[in-house]
Amino acid sequence: MRYKKYHPRIALAAAIAAMLAACNAADPKLSGNDAGFRVTPVTPAVVAQLQNEQSEKYHPSVTAICPLEPEYNYRLGPGDILFAKLYLPSNQGFDGSTTERYSQYLSMDSWQEYNEVIVKDDGNVSFPYVGEMPFANKTLSEAKEMLDMALAKYFKHPQSVLEVKEFKSRKVQVTGELHKPGEQYLRFAPLHVLEAVDAAGGLLDSADTAVATLTHKDGSIDKIDLFALMNNGDTSQNRILWDGDTLNIPANYGNKIFVMGEVSKPSMQYIKAGHMTIMEALNNASQGVNPITASYSNIYVIRENAAAETAAPLQTQVYHLDGSTGSGLAMAAQFPLEPNDVVYVSPTGLSEWNEFINQLLPTGVIYTGATITNNR
User: How far apart are CA 159 and CA 145, in angstroms?
Assistant: First the structure.
């Protein structure tokens, strides 16, 4: 089969894969320590350890502890547009008249409507009779009480209806991998993370739900684990959004893995929600493993050592999976991949290695052990 050229950063992985095939042909024990990489057979214990490490990395237990949030109350602010309806009985009631005489004024049609009352930039609202009133940072019930008290200086038993016609003062930003990112205005009911995501049209396939962030007006940042919220029911992640918050769902473009070798379609894939297994990666490679040319017993995961600078000369960790058995397939469905992993399926023989290396690596590049040099 023909092999596709890949980015030079995985040339080292290709060279290691070639060495592994050669080692496998010569010695089934696959010892690569002297060449700058370590080969670890995949066992249930290894899979369990890697799963625990990844779970702690992407979904640490401390994230389940949600700090207590203050009680949510919408407070009016500049830009809000109000609707007001005032019942103002005749001020003749102030002349000391009897209850019977006053009752006739209560039955009169004394309602006055004000369709668009804007909370101005200084936070004030203007009404007839009472003039300017500071409504900024008041709840609607507090504003109504303030208005009734002011009107009571001029009318006996005034009544008022106060509503918010348009919410314009409190807003949040919802950004990142969403169908309709942008501003969302807060209302009387609190806006939670899931509601904000839904109002933004939902997540794109490229969203990395494991590392969403909620940045507050004061600059503090909370990590939001959408994966745990949407898949595990962790409601502690469904935080309330407050005025000035920015909810960002980043792209998973930094979470690349590469599937190479004897698969129907060698490809670069993205890890979604911080989780992908060997089996998922192989199934995503079009129709999976080539049933004719692939060696099911020699599937490798080539991983850069995160501590390469301090762990020389071992710079690469290689996991060897025997997928020819039922237990091997079960482990393939559980083995967690990490960003920049290379999943390599060996061919049944060595006949195609020269063609593979010649097409993958630039002309004049040779490998010796785990070191690549250029003869040009």
Answer: 10
Tell me how far apart the alpha carbons of residues 310 and 271 are, in angstroms, rounded to a whole number: 27
Strands 256-261 and 267-270: antiparallel
- Strand pairing report for 171-176 and 246-249: parallel
How would you write the pLDDT of the chain (376 residues) with one tens digit per residue?
Answer: 444 444 544 555 555 665 565 555 444 444 445 556 778 899 999 999 998 887 776 655 444 445 567 889 999 999 999 999 998 776 544 444 444 444 444 445 578 889 899 999 999 999 988 999 999 999 999 999 999 999 988 888 888 999 999 999 999 999 999 999 999 999 999 999 999 999 999 999 888 888 899 999 999 999 998 888 987 888 999 999 999 999 999 988 878 899 988 888 888 888 876 688 999 999 887 667 777 788 888 899 999 865 544 445 556 888 999 998 999 999 999 999 988 899 999 887 644 444 544 444 444 434 333 333 344 4
Q: How far apart are CA 369 and CA 78, in angstroms?
A: 68
DSSP state of 177: S
- Cα angle 349-355-360, degrees, rounded to a multiple of 5: 115
CA distances 116 to 77, 168, 187, 194, Å, are 15, 13, 18, 32
* CA nearest to 209, candidates 177, 165, 173: 177
Nearest 10 degrees: Cα torsion 376, 344, 318, 41: -150
Residue 67 neighbours by CB under 8 Å, 6+ apart: none
Q: CB neighbours (10 Å) of residue 124?
A: 15
Q: Tokens 């967690």 — which residue?
A: 336
Please say whether the beta carbons of 147 and 85 come within 8 A.
Answer: no
pTM: 0.65
